[in-house]
Amino acid sequence: MYPSNNKMFISHFSRSSFIELLNDNKIDEIFDKLINPIQEEINEFIINEKAALKKWIAINEKIRKSAGLKEEEYYFDGRNGIRRTKQS
Q1: What is the pLDDT of residues 19-42, one digit of tens each?
Q2: Contact 34, 13 (CB under 8 A)
Q3: Are 10 and 38 a contacting pair, CB within 8 Å?
Q4: Which of 28, 49, 54, 69 could form a disulfide with 64 if both were Cys (CB 3.0 to 4.6 A apart)?
Q5: DSSP conformation letters of 53-87
Q6: The model's pTM
Q7: Exposure letters 42-72 (e unless 16+ CB within 10 A, then b)
Q8: Are 84 and 69 in contact (CB under 8 A)?
């Protein structure tokens, strides 16, 4: 499990395989077969999540600039154009 911005990453692996690796004292195999692949997936997810956030920030800035929205204004980009509301 690995928390990231209120997310939890959970991975499943066989209890018997884990116990076997521990009993045989194969720490290197535990990392190679279990921990490293999980960490690689988590890292890839985080990279993709950061890229999506960066893209959204750019889109948001473009919308705000084109509509003349101030930072304290909320907006809804719907079918009928942008609707503004003030933050309270």
Answers
A1: 887 787 777 877 887 888 888 998
A2: yes
A3: no
A4: 69
A5: HHHHHHHHHHHHHHHT--TTEEEEEETTEEEEEE-
A6: 0.61
A7: beeeeeeeeeeeeeeeeeeeeeeeeeebeee
A8: yes
